[in-house]
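Researcher: Going back to the complex we discussed earlier. I've cleaned up the inputs and rechecked each line, so this should be the final set. Can you rerun the prediction on the complete assembly and write out the structure?
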Amino acid sequence: DTGVSQNPRHKITKRGQNVTFRCDPISEHNRLYWYRQTLGQGPEFLTYFQNEAQLEKSRLLSDRFSAERPKGSFSTLEIQRTEQGDSAMYLCASLSIGPNYGYTFGSGTRLTVV
Amino acid sequence: AQSVTQPDIHITVSEGASLELRCNYSYGATPYLFWYVQSPGQGLQLLLKYFSGDTLVQGIKGFEAEFKRSQSSFNLRKPSVHWSDAAEYFCAVGAGNQGGKLIFGQGTELSVKP
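Model: Rerun complete. Updated structure for the full complex:
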């Protein structure tokens, strides 16, 4: 178990381009969460999955954003037609339910839209 | 609506001095409460959590927090700060049913003077 893995660590893209991020959760965790964090702010919830089902989406998740978790394992977050306001750290977390209840976060993907 | 308030955006303490970071929450039911620490460009590391039971919880790195229901607070404390504690600290509340999303405060940046 190597924790929650996110790729890439950094992404620089031109405005209008599409980007996709990947999150590999801890293997036995069936819940997976995406958050966005802008400079000087706390993480803001975007969406979460239980296995392959997307159970909740924030209003922050505009039509340009889509997340998937095929087969209930890794997840991808895609942003279409990126805007400068999308520049942020995108964090993924997975949840352990049980005696060691808690959320484990990945190191994040830093997106810069130029 | 659920919310978390961290009143202090930035705190500076001298190395060896005691520390208290404030956190107030708004939540309708018994909250799941967390403190995370984040170093620049990194993900979030869990310091401690509270679900039920003893209202004084111990965490890693010598941190502790006390849940006070009457004050809707969950303040983080450390008796003697080390230079390596300089980081951003986030308080979070678990919203919804068990395993739902976390709602974060905006964070408190801690600086440590030699």
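Model: Worth noting: Chain A touches chain B at residues 4, 6, 31, 33, 35, 40-45, 48, 50, 56, 91, 93, 95, 97, 101-108, 110 (CB under 8 Å).
Researcher: Good, that matches what I expected from the previous run.
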